[in-house]
Amino acid sequence: MFARISTYRPAPDSTGAPSGETVNQVLALPGCRGIYYLLGKANTSLSITLWDDEDALAGSRQEADRIRSETSAEQHMEVLGVDEFDVLVQHLKE
Question: Is the pLDDT of residue 15 over 80?
Answer without folding.
Answer: no
